[in-house]
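Give me structure tokens for this 213-residue protein.
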Amino acid sequence: MKRRIIIFRLCIIILVVFSSVASAKNPNSNNNEPHCLIREYIKQKVDSCGFLNNNTIFCLSYTDETRFSYWSYDLDSGKRTLIFEDESFFYPRQGGIQFLWRKYALDIYGYGGTILVDLVTGERTGIEDFQYTRDTIALLNPAETRILFTKHDFQNDDLGITDIGVYNLQTEEISILTRQGYENRAEVSLGWFDNERVEVRAMNESGEYYLYL
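Here you go.
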């Protein structure tokens, strides 16, 4: 049994790498099915695949331009986990799936309810006291331990950041700050300063940039 698992793992790694290299070398190949070797091995249509971590790969299959199925493979055990089946990408007021960097995604309902989805295990966790709206942006920190949520006044000429929320994936708690006076500052960018602090960059009338956390 152990030998079969090792062979399975080696085959999947070879297929992922070889398929990716083949697609890169042949940009004129059929873009709808770039990973044909993997598709033949698992007997299912695959449009995209890659590594989620050292032991897990993902495979994505499009139903059409807006809908898809997504599953993960554990290379140690050979276990296949269906994460999403015939789901749609996020669209305001309709909901859908919003992918974050690496191993997480958000399953957003039309009314704004938000579920955090682990793309490796399929585990789903509701984010309480928060609604995802059309003016929300989500950014995962480099350590994948916190998610930055920001809401924006898009009628403002600059970023117009009205709310900043930080969700802690370990404690499953969110802290939200409602901001005042944002319209008086020319804020031009935001993101993670490090794994625990959020940065907002602004510009003064002289064109000089300044940073506050």
